[in-house]
Amino acid sequence: MLRRLSHRYTAVAPASINLCPIPAPAACNDANLSEPLLHERVDQASERLTHCEASIQPTSTAREPDQLAPAAAAKEEQPPTAEAEAAFLCKTGCSSVPVADTLSLAVKGLGDEDCAVLARMLEGSAAARLRRLDLSLNRIGSAGAISLRPLLCGAGRLETLALSENRIADEGAVALGAALRDGGCGALRRLLLGWNRIGDEGMAALAASFGAGGAPKLLELRLEGNLLGDASAEALAAALCERDNSQRLGVLCFGNEIGGNVVGDRGLMALIEVFDRLSDVQELLLSNNRIGPASTIALANAICLGGGARLQKLHLHCNQIEAEGEAALCGVRACRAAIEVAWLPCIKPAASRCVSV
């Protein structure tokens, strides 16, 4: 019985908890104990078990978007070490604090700790001078994005922020959204977040910052290669409704020929409902998603009726638009010949049919 209790306790306790051990009787086993003594030992073990289980606080892995920001703020307080600064300078080839208005640090093997060093180096006037910051093709995760928040809050002239092809997830997107909402990057025109690990929760935080007036001059938003679904498109559509009429996107990318997201009919319908807010969009890139014929037809009708007055490029490669959707897109070509309308079906092993666009 004592061994069964010990096994039960080990199963319920997380590995990170310091367990209260249940001592085994020395130089004896359960079979040699008298019945009263055995009951006494079991009672003692049960009391220890109850005490230890009461000390274990239940935890939850799911967090709401507004609960992620406090965790982000706590991580920002960790100053980079001298070793981290030396490693950053070695990776980037910098010998001192950068003073140029363009800082290209793509493909440098930078990680989260390097972002903390960069934010520390660019405190004050150096951040205010930046116009273009390229950190794409690195190993930056959510912790790195969190570390960049104070830098972005002070980068009032930054026009391009490239964070594509990193490892930023929802928590990092929340930190970026908070920086934009707090007035950082007021001049931002291009936000490149493709090929990360951002999901609906992170996109909801970014969209909320746009709706609250963050990045008022944003013209290009690239989100391909993430984990965004219908909820993300709906959140962005709601944010577009809240923005001032002068704050309009020119390029919106949920997917290209290489990769996309998981936006389906519901998400595209949400964007169509606010199509008047996309009147300035020139490129609407929706390839490699899960868009079906119903929303494709609705989009085609909206365009043929005059929506997207400045639209120049509409890409819907590798979706599920089927013959009905293809016919509708052919109608767009007929009535709006200036628009580059392109679609290719998903390649299936058993299919040999192709479409010329």
Give a quick summary of the entry.
By secondary structure, the protein is an alpha/beta fold. It has a domain at 2-55.
Characteristics:
43% helix; 9-stranded parallel beta sheet; 9 strands; 13 helices; 357 residues
Structure notes:
The protein has a domain of 54 residues. The protein is 43% helix and 8% strand. Strands 1-2-3-4-5-6-7-8-9 form a nine-stranded parallel beta sheet, with helices on one face. The radius of gyration is 27 Å and the shape is elongated. The N terminus and C terminus are likely disordered.
Question: What does the overall shape look like?
Answer: elongated
Mean of all residue-level pLDDT scores? 81
Total number of strands: 9
Helix proportion:
40-55%
**What is the H-and-E element order?**
HHHHEHHEHEHEHEHEHEHEHE
Reported for the largest beta sheet, the result is: 9 strands, parallel
Separate helix tally: 13
Query: How large a portion of the residues is in β-strands, by DSSP E?
Result: 5-15%
Strand order of the largest sheet: 1-2-3-4-5-6-7-8-9
